[in-house]
């Protein structure tokens, strides 16, 4: 799966977002061809290589050659609908404009349909927003993650007059996202930038490990003293689970059914098979031929244990045949740790998850025995064992 990490450390605007995509490999001519399907005229799209704060990147410039009409939500939706952009691009762009209209309406106390778009309704903003969704589609990006939004502070001049930073619409659009407000003066994240991040990423969720393939840097218009006016995007392929710590290993699955054994004779079977070397064993009630109720026995084991386990199934059950198949399973690294509690030593099974964190589960039989001896509950013993494991630094323990 191709993913993108949006680095909003220094803010984001629509032109910066589009510039980062182009800088990361989005072909400009393909982008222009996609935008040419829109019923928009009187503009020219171009790019230039430049530097902001000593960092090189791509600056997107939309030269407006003719006066633009006033636009409302219906006008923006019609522009999108009349294009021949892919359906997914049209759907995302339309959803973004509706979201923007709701934000602006909430700010000005109007219905979304009656909002008059000024800056965002201008052709350069339309190119930035629709171009960003078209660019995402052309690059094949499937999922987005984002850093906290850097909002800035102070005031900004708009068509509505001087507004506080973050601009009211930006604040509404950023609701639910992690944000940073610094001591630096200026508008670092614009409504258009917040709209794109909120629509595509939706949260500041940490991305999974991924193989970095490309980076892109989009430049803002201003050169800001003491801060690079840039926005970055990092593109890559999410690493498969086994490359993130889970091992792919072969196992055999032994399976059989019986319909002439009572539950009391079957009950000890899983424990006996586990003692021989089974990794897991389950008994499932099933309805067999001639309407007879019975049980399916499923055993998972390492390949070298298949013979011993098949022999045990013939010996311990009434079955006349055992099906065996080879499969693969992904296994997390795991270990056993013995922790000291007021109930005595308790073993804790620990697994390391793909993101590097660990998960612990106290061994139930240890908890049960300790609870019976102390007159406590197994849950109390397990809670203390888990707490002692955390205090010990969450060790993984020895392999199991």
Distance between the termini: 32 Å
Q: Which word captures the global form?
A: elongated
Name the structural class.
alpha+beta
Q: Compute the average pLDDT.
A: 91
Q: Radius of gyration in whole Å, from Cα? A: 30 Å
The tally of structural domains comes to 3
* Oligomeric nature of the chains: single chain
Core attributes:
12 helices; 3 domains; 32% strand; alpha+beta; elongated; 4-stranded antiparallel beta sheet; 4-stranded mixed beta sheet; Alpha-Beta Plaits; 400 residues; single chain; Ubiquitin-like (UB roll); 19 strands
Please describe what this structure looks like:
This protein is α+β, with helices and mostly antiparallel strands. It folds into three domains: 238 residues, no CATH class; 85 residues, 2-Layer Sandwich (Alpha-Beta Plaits), CATH 3.30.70; 66 residues, Ubiquitin-like (UB roll), CATH 3.10.20. It is 32% helix and 32% strand. The chain has twelve helices and 19 strands. The strands form six sheets. A four-stranded mixed beta sheet has the order 4-1-11-10. Strands 13-14-12-15 form a four-stranded antiparallel beta sheet, with helices on one face. A four-stranded antiparallel beta sheet has the order 18-17-16-19. The protein is elongated.
């Amino acid at each position: 799966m191709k993913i993108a990490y949006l680095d909003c450390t220094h803010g984001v605007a629509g032109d910066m977002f589009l510039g980062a995509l182009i800088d990361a490999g989005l072909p400009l001519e393909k982008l222009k061809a996609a935008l040419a399907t829109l019923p928009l005229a009187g503009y020219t799209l171009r790019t230039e290589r430049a530097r902001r704060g000593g960092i090189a990147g791509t600056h997107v410039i939309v030269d407006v050659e003719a006066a633009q009409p006033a636009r409302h939500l219906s006008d923006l939706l019609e522009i999108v609908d009349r294009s021949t952009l892919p359906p997914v691009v049209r759907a995302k762009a339309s959803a973004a404009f509706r979201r923007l209209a709701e934000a602006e309406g909430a700010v000005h106390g109007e219905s979304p349909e009656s909002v008059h778009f000024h800056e965002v309704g201008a052709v350069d903003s339309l190119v930035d927003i629709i171009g960003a969704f078209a660019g995402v589609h052309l690059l094949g990006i499937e999922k987005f993650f984002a850093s906290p939004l850097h909002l800035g502070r102070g005031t900004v001049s708009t068509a509505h007059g001087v507004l506080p930073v973050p601009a009211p619409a930006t604040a509404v659009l950023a609701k639910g996202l992690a944000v940073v407000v610094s001591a630096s003066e200026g508008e670092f994240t614009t409504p258009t930038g917040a709209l794109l991040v909120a629509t595509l990423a939706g949260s500041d969720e940490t991305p999974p490990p991924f193989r970095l393939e490309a980076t892109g840097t989009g430049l803002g218009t201003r050169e800001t003293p003491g801060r690079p006016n840039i926005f970055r995007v990092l593109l890559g392929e999410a690493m498969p689970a086994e490359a993130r710590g889970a091992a792919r290993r072969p196992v055999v699955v032994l399976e059989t059914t019986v319909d002439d054994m009572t539950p009391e004779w079957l009950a000890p079977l899983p424990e006996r098979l586990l003692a021989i070397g089974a990794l897991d064993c389950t008994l499932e009630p099933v309805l067999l031929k001639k309407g007879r109720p019975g049980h399916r026995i499923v055993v998972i084991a390492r390949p070298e244990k298949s013979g011993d386990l098949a022999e045990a199934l013939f010996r311990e059950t009434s079955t006349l045949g055992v099906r065996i198949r080879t499969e693969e399973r992904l296994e997390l690294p795991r270990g056993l740790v013995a922790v000291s509690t007021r109930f005595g030593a308790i073993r804790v099974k620990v697994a390391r998850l793909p993101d590097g964190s660990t998960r612990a589960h106290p061994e139930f039989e240890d908890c049960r025995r300790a609870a019976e001896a102390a007159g406590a509950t197994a849950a109390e013993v397990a809670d203390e064992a888990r707490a002692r494991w955390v205090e010990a630094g969450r060790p993984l323990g020895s392999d199991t």
